[in-house]
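so my prof wants the structure for this chain in the tokens format not the other one, which i didnt know existed until like an hour ago. anyway here's the sequence
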Amino acid sequence: MSVLVNKDSKIIVQGFTGSEGTFHASQMIEYGTQVVGGVTPGKGGQTHLDKPVFNTVSEAVEAVGADTSIIFVPPAFAADAIMEAADAGIKVIITITEGIPVADMIKAYAYIQDRDCQLVGPNCPGVITPGEAKVGIMPGFVFKKGKVGIVSKSGTLTYEAADQVVREGLGITTAIGIGGDPIIGTTTKAALEMLIMDDETEAVVMIGEIGGQLEAEAANWYKASGSNKPVVGFIAGETAPAGRTMGHAGAIVGGSDDTAQAKKKIMRACGIHVVDSPAEIGKKVAEVLG
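here's what i got, hopefully its the right format
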């Protein structure tokens, strides 16, 4: 059982005809992902990459049965794109766009709460279930099918962890890049929960960073769940100075609980196998599954 996306997912690309949308949609199609069309207002009725273009998401849902969307819409319009997808009945909304204003995301986040959909991102690399669907900007060749799930705030560390796990001969079930913005749809806890509940996933790699409480919430949930599936954790940003945003908009130490040291302490207390260097992730996963 994959998580969020699989070979049956029918994907549309919002911002389909723009340069980012075009490049990554072609990569997704080449990977074998079932891209059924795209949305660019004003260009409906055209074809692009041999797929139909629609003016609205609801038209795409009606015409091609889309259930998953990936958003490459510019920051000023991306929150509206999220709300439009939710309104049209899209079940999984993966938002790649970086730099969406926080005020816009507050509105979009509130809007989707009473709708039956799962938002991943924004400012994330997307989701991949190896061999089935790549809905994102990650390098597909790094990911091979296997039994380890990944949840990560960092795009590049997602790829690094996947590469190490694959080199250990274990492979990946689904990798979820949740994004590093202050307001995101799928939290570390929500992604961890999905992977722990997944029958094919035998271990999870959880990559976090300084700022916020997401990793602590996930660790506490894991401990309370009583799950015997091992979780390997890493927190980026150990040397970051307090009060300064580092890389991601959400990566800012606001208090003593937001530091890498504090998060690692909580994670260890909850039974997570914490590594101090990203170079140790693959070896630690092999060890805990050994």
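also thought this was worth mentioning. The mean pLDDT is 96.
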